[in-house]
Amino acid sequence: MALYRHTLLTAEQASAMHNYRIKTVYGMARHLKNEGMLSRIPLRFLRDHHVGYTLTAKGAKAAARLCGDEEQFRPKEWMDDPVQLEHFYGVNAFFTSLIRHSLPQKDEGLIEWLGSREATDRYVQIKASGRKSRPVKPDGFGIYRCSGRGRLVFHLEYDTGTENLWRLKEKMIAYGELLPAMWPQVEAVHVLFVTKIASRPKALLDIWDVLRVETLSAGRLPGVWAIHESEWNAHGAQRALWRGAGGQNIRWMDMPLLPLSSDSGLPVWGKQPREPSPTYRR
After folding, report:
1. pTM over 0.85
2. Disulfide-capable partner of 141 in 114, 178, 188, 201 (CB 3.0 to 4.6 Å)?
């Protein structure tokens, strides 16, 4: 089901998600591939011959049934391998980096991780005509529990540089208009841009600084932050600095938090009790 929700995963990412040994993940992948449910795709943008895994139409149909999505399932969407391999990889790499960061931390970690489809459906709006609209389409949505302090709620936008700044400006406007209506404490709800182009974080925050004054009236607004991917990969949650409105620079762990709530008992991604693999019996 993880591949159905997140489209493309490497063995390392799947291992981090589910707290499985890497050998177990390879065994599961081999079994599913032999059953015609899984495809193995070279990730040529990475070094050392990395591969990713994605579902075939047969595998996706079985996963949709398990997820209760049979009525919405469209086989044609799964007939070919995904096109935006680098994009899917980058989104999932960000989330799994948070999982790895949380492992030594007691009572801390990612308690919610939605892929693009589920994150988008979270904000579906119904028009007067009865038709559905999707004003924001995050690449992912997450809630990270910070032990004893609160919840860091974020929407991820992973920018490979294929969209121009005008399109990203429209995304920021949509977030700025919708999130205040959905989140009472919207100032502690965040939109994170992770970019592959070094100049993008500054350009994005320059645009946001104008929008929040001239277009969105500088009222109750979400936090918008941007970082170059290499900065995040090099320094992680403890030391990497995100660029924010008004020239702010802040660490991930210092971003404003929502209070802890009843979800504090939810399992943490990557810290689930390890269960026997369906294909390996220890």
Report:
1. yes
2. 114
